[in-house]
């Protein structure tokens, strides 16, 4: 089972994704759900996720910035972006 970290500053989006998606059916464990980049980075110090699902525009740092910071903290991590070849 892969560990997933969900990050979005919009409560309705974040909570909706938490409730609507059957994470276990997808072989995912939702380890944390954070409202901003700072909380997300803090949660990664305790439990590094296998998958990061961030919003793009977040207070303090963009979702893409979280991916870069995560790569700095865990050099073995891969930054897979399906939108860019």
Structure overview:
With 85 residues, the chain is α/β, with parallel strands linked by helices. The protein is 36% helix and 20% strand. The protein contains three helices and three strands, in the order βαβαβα. It has helices at residues 11-20, 37-46, 63-73, and strands spanning 2-7, 28-34, 51-54. Helix 1 (11-20) links the parallel strand 1 (2-7) and strand 2. The protein is globular and about 30 Å long. It starts with a strand and ends in a 12-residue tail after the last helix.
Describe what is shown at a glance.
The protein is α/β, with parallel strands linked by helices. 36% of the residues lie in helices and 20% in strands.
Defining traits:
single chain, 85 residues, alpha/beta, three-stranded parallel β-sheet, 3 helices, 36% helix, 20% strand
Please specify the SSE layout and strand pairing:
Elements: E1 2-7, H1 11-20, E2 28-34, H2 37-46, E3 51-54, H3 63-73
Parallel strand pairs: 1-2, 1-3
Query: What's the main sheet like?
Result: 3 strands, parallel
Give average pLDDT, whole number: 83
Element pattern in H and E: EHEHEH
* Tertiary shape: globular
The stretches of 5 or more residues where confidence is low (pLDDT under 50) are none
Gap between N and C termini = 27 Å
């Amino acid at each position: 089972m892969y560990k997933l970290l969900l990050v979005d500053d919009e409560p309705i989006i974040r909570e909706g994704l938490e409730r609507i998606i059957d994470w276990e059916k997808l072989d995912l464990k939702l380890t944390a759900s954070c409202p901003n980049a700072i909380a997300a980075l803090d949660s990664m110090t305790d439990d590094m996720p296998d998958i990061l699902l961030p919003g793009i525009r977040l207070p303090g740092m963009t979702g893409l910035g979280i991916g870069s910071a995560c790569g700095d903290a865990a050099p073995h991590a891969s930054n897979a972006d399906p939108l860019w070849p």
